[in-house]
Amino acid sequence: MPKRAAPAGLTHLRVTLSDDFYVGPGRADLLEGIAATGSIAAAGKRMGMSYKRAWSLVQALNDGFGRPLVETSRGGAGQGGAALTEDGAFVLAHYRAMEEATRKAIAGDVSAVARRLDMSRRK
Q1: pTM for this model (two decimals)
Q2: Which of 23, 37, 51, 99 is most buried by its number of CB atoms within 10 A?
Q3: H or E element, residue 16
Q4: How many other C-beta atoms can be found within 10 angstroms of the C-beta atom of residue 85?
C-alpha cells in the first residue's frame, strides 16, 4: 500500500477509546491493507513492516477492542488468510470518518495559519 500523502493540516489523528484501545493512521492503514489483500503479511509488506510487527498490531487491536477486528484462517498453500470482521470494518469506517470530520473542522484555521506563514524565510 503506497504511503498516503499527509493532507494539509492533519498528519496524525490518534483516537484513544480506553487504556487498552486506540486507533491511529498506522493501525487504520493496516486494517485497510488486510481488507484489500486478505493477508496480514501482505498488508504489512505493503507498509514496509515485518510480519511479526503487523501480527502484533493485529493482536493489540483485537485484544484492546475485546472482540476480533481481524480474523485469521489457517490452511495449506493459498488457503490461509485474514479478513476484517464486521467490527473491524465498522472501526475502520468510523476512524476514516473521524479523520475527514477533523480535516473539515480545522480547514479554516489551517488556511489562516498557512496564509500567515512566511515560507520565503524557510529552507
Answers
A1: 0.84
A2: 23
A3: strand 15-16
A4: 15
